[in-house]
Amino acid sequence: VQTGKEEIWPPTPHAVPFSLQEEGLNDVQEMIKTEKPHPERRLRGVLEELSSGCLRFLTLADKDQHHSSRTRLDRERLKSCMRELENMAQQATALRSQVKRNTMKDKLKLVQNFLQKLRFLADEPQHTIPDVFIWMMSNNKRIAYARIPSKDILYSIVDEEMGKDCAKVKTVFLKHPGKRGFGPAGWTVQAKMEIYLWLGLNKQRKDFLSGLPCGFEEKKVPRGQNLPSFPPISLLYTKKQVFQLRAHMYQARSLFAADSSGLSDPFARVFFISQSQCTEVLNETLCPTWDQLLVFDNVELYGEAHEMRDDPPIIVIEIYDQDTVGKADFMGRTFAKPVVKMSDEQYCPPRFPPQLEYYQIYRGNATAGDLLAAFELLQIGPGGKSDLPPIDGPTDMDRGPILPVPLGIRPVLSRYRVEILFWGLRDLKRVNLAQVDRPRVDIECAGKGVQSALIQNYKKNPNFSTLVKWFEVDLPENELLHPPLNIRVVDCRAFGRYTLVGSHTVSSLRKFIYRPPDKKAQQWNMAVPCRNPVGSHLNSIVVNMEPEVPIKKMDTMVKLEANSDAVVKVDVKEKKKKKKKGGGGGGGGGEEVEEEEPDESMLDWWSKYFASIETMKEVGEEQQSGSDAKLSPTEGSKAQAKNKDKDKSKAPKDDKKKKQQPGPELPEKKSKQKIDELKVYNKELEAEFDNFEDWLHTFNLLRGKIGDNDDNATEEERIVGRFKGSMCVYKVPLPDDIAKEAGYDPTFGMFQGIPSNDPINVLVRVYIVRATDLHPADINGKADPYIAIKLGKTDIKDKENYISKQLNPVFGKSFDIEATFPMESMLTVAIYDWDLVGTDDLIGETKIDLENRFYSKHRATCGVSQTYSIHGYNTWRDPMKPSQILSKLCKEGKVDGPHFGPGGRVKVANRVFTGPTEIEDENGQKKPTDEHLALAVLRHWEDIPRAGCHLVPEHVETRPLLNPDKPGIEQGRLEMWVDMFPMDMPAPGPAIDISPRKPKKYELRVIVWNTDEVILEDDDYFTGEKSSDIFVRGWLKGQQEDKQDTDVHYHSLTGEGNFNWRYIFPFDYLMAEEKIVISKKESMFSWDETEYKIPARLTLQVWDADHFSADDFLGAIELDLNRFPRGAKTSKQCSLEMVTNEAELPMISIFKQKRVKGWWPFVARDENDELEITGKVEAELHLLTAEEAEKSPAGLARNEPDPLEKPNRPDTSFIWFLNPLKSIKYLICTRYKWLIIKIVLALLLLIMVALFLYSMPGYMVKKLLGA
């Protein structure tokens, strides 16, 4: 195909990086799948190729950018491609350095996103050249076609810009035209052809045969003398090679279930060049092991021998399902390239015999299993077939002419025994509208299998009567080649009919394989010390448990210098002394504040919870910052001299973060270590303990025949139930010593010590602490959540206790439910949104499988507390005491112990634990007890050899809430935990009270005594003098509408004001959270009040009163009642520092001090937005509980009871136009006294002069005349 002279296509980015990247990624995935070493290196290589490919494209495109024939779209698109690829090259380089062994999976996903982006960019938005169509005709009817994108066969002088199929012999599959080409019908191939295509400019036509296999002669048509020679009509090949293809079809796995029974009857058809052969049909299996060799003789291939070797034609393998009636159904297809051996090569390793490989089978675009096979293409030399390696291997007499896969290629098989533990079936859905009543489970692996006992009445008891069954099967030694194991559940209907309910494929048996321990390794195991040995006695390890020290802080590592490590063992008593001496080690100077013991009666479950959340955050932060040698200040050992100075500098900084204590010289944490804690998991408990599948696994059963229209159905929708059980695969025979162990029961095989699966009654106690980040359900962006719990037939809806307008409700509730396992074992906790009208909406729900928890070895029935106490907020919840639990665990795990010895020691297996041996009862009497010791062992149970595993601690788990209508999107999180107690055991005590703390009623009395240096705002009408009419306003944050004002001190000329005025603020306060609780309606239309929690802050403001205009704001101060600076003793000492430099000042809390008096500054911002001091106030704060306030009442303002005296204000506090005489009197008497005297004197003088002047002439005349 040739086109005109002008070059009309822009280069596409696809040519450069993406075929390489695709191959590379497939390699990486293959490496991970087959668990080859260092897949991360290969991924780094892929990223390097990608970035260099991108940069290469940029250089090519850059030359190409300013071509004359580009349209604007071409230019812009090229720019965008260049931008994207430049960006991608940078990202790839950055990613390359981040690829590590553990981040492999995430990074692989990112690289796959690159690949998708490249595919998208490579797609031309505007096709400049039409595509090529190939039609197959028969009797002038179009039967099948193929469409080849022209960009794939474009020729270019630059290798990278060449189409990927240009000048290559390609295999093309033709498909049905029109509608028939879509869907399952169109997946079968109508025809396959080999074709060579080249599309380029006229001037490049001399190259068009360059890609054909060599060894041909052209046959041309004679044309006129001066006409150029056109392409030849035909090519005559002189060189041909004869080959034999051997297809070793071993097995396929995880095929598509084509029959309604959930199985298929598969056979494979192999196509090569122009020949095809089929394997035999295997009935009723999804993992057929054909173990068959197909031989294709006399395959003729053309071209040079070396070309054949490097690029042999592809083999197409199609899998079909044989039906008794009608034609076979297509189940999937895959392609393979054979390993080629030329006649002059030796048939020897490393290339021969070829290894079996997995080929992914595709059905449409979906994957539908894998094929395990090997293909070799052997050249038949001049000596004929006799030179080929013989097809040795037993010809199966039973299978007639079928050849099995020869020995060098087929995997080595061993005899394995597969033991299956049948426990029960759960949540089976209806099949064909009928309920499942008598189910049975069939297990099949590599053609062998076993059936479970029949469950007689699924409704009454869904567990199996026979627990363990086994079968033997030959499996490959190489575990990667193990076939999957199929679990099918059928329902036995009337008249002996069987209906498939659902099936599950266990694709890898690896985690169920049992390897008997080596003799040598066993002895070695016994002597491995536990994580923190303190001293070992012969063969036993001593674990030292100190009282009151959290166990994980047993040994304190103190990094002294880079070169010296010292382990400091701190004794508790020393610790306390140090604390008192140095103010916690960090208090090198300054006031020593003794650490206060929390009051037992004040502590409740919430104290424990909040302390634990603090710990969780700290642990999280430490993990993030990767702090290896960080010391927590409670560890006492800071009194080490070298660390002292560091700590001094650290303490004030930390203080800013945690505004908790008055003094800067105190250690960071208040009284952390004294409160017993529980473990807060910020995920589900299942995630932490591996789904509690330590011996009982849950397999989801999927619906049988998948119609192709179900391909988009999610996994969830296809689940029709769950099978509970387990399996154990091991080579037979086992070493003898296992069967000889004491108490070995042969009927249970490998599943020793399994509890009985008879129905059991259990008391389930569900504690719901709180929910966070709920999805809003109402128009106002809030929700009114309440709890609904469902377990079996019990359905609790706590509707009347809904919490109004909250997305983070604190429920603090516990519910007791009696249930019978196994029938009622799925607990659903849902959060609904209460609506006044209409039905309540589900916000989200979480499901917990209680049965797996109940039977787990991790003992998830009731968490093990940190300490054992018999009263107070940390009472032991379990009806069994730690010593009873320990004895039971030792007995079940066949562990020697527990042996309690004198001096607070206990020996279990070969571990010795020490700990306290006394306990205080409510009256403070000390009694001897072994419980602390037993608890120490339980908390370290994972260190016990063989039987040990991590026991579930006392905890709160955080579970995501999901809504079936919005799959996969978290609707909020729920913090909760579940306790379970079997009813045949002694009854547990009452549930712990975790109800939310009720706020305590307080009354805050604030007396405003005086103000000073308040800025003067007003000018006097007559005299222009500055003055202010001062009053003070106060309120508690959140109660602005209840603000209170003093009376006005008029006409203060110095900024001094006298008030003697009392405010009274009643409020509800939560001590633990340091918040005020306010309940109010959001709007007049609200149905009920909403609760808000806000910090306790008192605001005082100073104002200038104006009669005709609005009052002027002069300044304010806000005091956090938990942490505010101590007031200054006098007005002089009161400064701006008290507001700006809070961190340095000693802080006090009104809740501790109860009564405080002093001077505080009022501040406001000036024009430059800087704080300036605008006045000072002398106030007294007095905090009383509601009861105290009732006993000693006080009046508002200056009223009875307990009245305050009137302030002593000078007489200037008047208003001139109300009292003019007084005003005049004042003006005359005080301000202008001297002025008036001066004026009077001057006037007298003036009069005298005037009189003198007036009378002088007369006198003169008189004197002169009448002398």
From TrEMBL:
Q: Key word Metal-binding present in the record?
A: yes
Q: CDD domains of this UniProt entry?
A: C2D_Ferlin, C2E_Ferlin, C2F_Ferlin
Topology relative to the lipid bilayer, per the entry, is:
Single-pass membrane protein
Q: Which InterPro entries match?
A: C2_dom, C2_domain_sf, C2D_Ferlin, C2E_Ferlin, C2F_Ferlin, Ferlin, Ferlin_B-domain, Ferlin_C
Domain of life, source organism:
Eukaryota
- By its UniProt entry, which Gene3D superfamilies does this protein fall under? C2 domain (2.60.40.150)
| Region of interest (Disordered), ranges | 572-600, 618-672
- Gene that specifies this protein: OTOF
| Protein name according to UniProt | C2 domain-containing protein
